[in-house]
Amino acid sequence: MQHATSPQVKFIVFAIALTLLTPLFVFFVPLIYSETIYINIDHLALLIPMRNFLLVGVGFACLIVLLLLFSWQRKSTTYILGVILVVGAIFAFSQSQRSYIAIQDSGIEMKMYGDVKNYCWQDMSELVYEVFEQDTNRYTFVMADGKAIELAENGQVAALRGTLLSVARKHNINYIENHHE
Which of 64, 67, 62, 55 is nearest to 84 (CA)? Predict the structure, then answer.
């Protein structure tokens, strides 16, 4: 029995392995899930909000803390705390898959934690493209009622710039380009 690995070492090894694999999971899980479940032929682009990636990271952080907690000691209080951490991880994982932004021919569809809002191109009055030298460029879609939707420019949105401009012209949406230093 001298060569048996202790439970403490097993928990620490699993915690280290999970810590090393977490960046891969944080990056790929929201992408794969959204591209598999929410993809639609009507979408010009499907954007995944940063909060999805952060929530996956929080879920894995809960699991890593759980493993380290169990490597430290295993008593009734740590098991209760472990249940709370597992429930928190499950909640974070489930919420991380409930948000997306879809740019479509008909407008912009935003789903935030299950609440779907559709913004039609006909309801928009302005499309403002802000260019920053030191920061991420962004698009602001201003509705006729004054409400604004902001989208940070990434590779997907940058590739759609021509499409967004043609949609703006087609629906008589004012296009404004602001350059900031």
Answer: 62
- Residue 26's closest CA among 2, 62, 76, 69? 62
Give the pTM: 0.80
Q: What is the pLDDT of residues 144-159, one digit of tens each?
A: 888 888 888 887 777 8
Nearest alpha-carbon partner for 54 in 27, 19, 84, 90: 27
Closest among 151, 153, 154, 155 to 142, alpha carbons compared? 151
State pLDDT tens for residues 39-48. 777 778 888 8
Taking the C-alpha atoms of residue 20 and residue 38, their distance in angstroms, rounded to an integer, is 29
- What are the structure tokens assigned to 39, written together? 């993809």
